[in-house]
Amino acid sequence: MKVILTGCAGFIGFHLTKKYLDMNFTVIGVDNLNNYYSKKLKKDRLKQLLKHKKNKNFIFCKTSIDNYKSLKKIFIKYKPRIVINLAAQAGVRHSLKKPLDYVKSNLVGFSNILILSKEFNIKHLIYASTSSVYGNSTKNILTESDNVDHPIQFYAATKRSNELMAHAFSSLYKLPTTGLRFFTVYGPWGRPDMALFLFTKNILNKKPIHVFNNGNHIRDFTYVDDIIDGIYKITKKNFINKTKNNDPSESFCPFRILNIGNNKPVPLMKYIKVLESELGIKSNKIYKPLQKGDIKKTNASIKKIKNLYKYNPNTEIKKGIKSFVNWYRKYYSV
Ligand SMILES: NC(=O)c1ccc[n+]([C@@H]2O[C@H](COP(=O)([O-])OP(=O)(O)OC[C@H]3O[C@@H](n4cnc5c(N)ncnc54)[C@H](O)[C@@H]3O)[C@@H](O)[C@H]2O)c1
User: Fold this and answer.
1) CA-based nearest residue to 68, from 105, 115, 112
2) How far apart are CA 117 and CA 101, in angstroms?
3) pLDDT tens figures, 194-246
4) Would you call 257 helix, strand, or coil by DSSP?
5) Would you name the residues annotated as active-site residues?
6) How many domains does the chain have?
7) What distances in angstroms separate CA 319 from CA 145, 185, 314, one per listed residue?
């Protein structure tokens, strides 16, 4: 199996590339190594991939997906069967300051991915969406068929746009597409702008941690290995179109949206407690109000992905946080 995987030097992309190499796939990894966060961390992830025992099956292309010409050259040269698009400008808070970064990677970049996937007759385009599309939903459990027309920040708006753009291509050209709504992914080699990383760093440096929404957030934290297992199962199966008229996340065309979460929401304060116990240090907390654009509670319905792909997340937060902390301590020699 030959795949183009964009965002391969990113957190999820790195783990997914490793899994594909373990399973004998050929991976054409694309990433522009931008400086949204530590370039060194991205390069170190790449170094790990280049050390993999199947490293001959990994080809890295330093390219921006918003550069149509150079992306096209990669499609021409490698003729992939499947495309996984994880490259994006991520992060809710950055989108309040720099919305144009999201236009470039998430809108222009994703348009290029769609156009080339159509042009090269890709068998399945799998791309990252986000739980943030659910906005201020007050529902206890978030389901793919929920109305998601009211994003509360620009990052979510661009990701929701990706879903709509994909629908147009699935409908017009019968391009099979699956959009994955990720729910707060965490684990080793994680993202420095996300809560677990920031908390760990500050606690170890004896600095206070900022707890937004006065600690009342609830998140469906999902361990990265569970996510990778889910994406791998989706990649392995051919796209089968099962039309369900009452579900707008399915369609008459080969289009699908799937939540990929844990379905075990955890209060942020409990998450912090588990982290403190793993670090053996009590944190000094500064409570802050809800940040603009932040969602208060997430809890994924994972019925659909379970039924279709036997997705079965089973990592408890205690175990997941432990493996993150072990990695962090080793990587930063703390
Ligand atoms: N981690 C999460 O909890 C989470 C939650 C919801 C959605 N997502 C989505 O999942 C995907 C992967 O997330 P992640 O946490 O691994 O983020 P990440 O920032 O670690 O990875 C994204 C990678 O894409 C690269 N990139 C960004 N713009 C690019 C461009 N224009 N061209 C080429 N490469 C580019 C970056 O350099 C980075 O290495 C993203 O699309 C993100 O929006 C992640």
Assistant:
1) 112
2) 23
3) 999 999 999 999 999 999 999 999 999 999 999 999 999 999 998 887 766 56
4) strand
5) 155
6) 1
7) 32, 14, 10
Per-residue pLDDT at 247: 74
Helix (H) or strand (E) run with residue 196 in it: helix 195-204
Handedness of CA 26, 32, 36, 38 (dihedral sign): positive
Q: How far is Cα 324 from Cα 314, in angstroms, rounded to an integer?
A: 16
Query: Is the per-residue pLDDT at 249 higher than 90?
Result: no
User: To the nearest whole percent, how much of the chain has pLDDT over 70?
Assistant: 99
State which of 43, 130, 132, 220 you would mutate to test the pocket of ligand 1, scoring each by most atoms of that ligand within 8 A of its C-beta. Answer: 130
Can you tell me the distance from the alpha carbon of 43 to that of 153, in angstroms, rounded to the nearest whole number?
30
What is the CA(117)–ligand 1 centre distance, in A? 19
**Pair type for strands 218-219 and 266-267:** antiparallel
Residue 278 placed within a domain = no
Please indicate, yes or no, if residue 270 is contained in any of the structural domains: no
Phi, psi (deg, nearest 5) at residue 10: -85, 175
Instruction: Determine contact, residues 216/291, Cβ cutoff 8 Å.
Output: no
User: For residue 202, is it within any domain?
Assistant: no
DSSP H/E element including 286: strand 285-287
Residue 187 Cβ < 6 Å to ligand 1: no
Q: Is the CB of 65 under 6 A from ligand 1?
A: yes
- Give the CATH number of the domain where residue 57 resides: 3.40.50.720
Percent of the chain whose predicted confidence (pLDDT) is above 90 = 94
The helix (run of H) or strand (run of E) holding residue 166 is helix 154-173
What predicted TM-score, i.e. pTM, was given to this entire model?
A: 0.97
Residue 42: inside a domain: yes
82-85/124-130 β-pairing: parallel
Strand partners, 61: 30
User: How large is the average pLDDT for residues 145-161?
Assistant: 97
Residue 99 structural domain: 2-186+224-261+292-314
pLDDT in tens, 306-317: 999 999 999 999
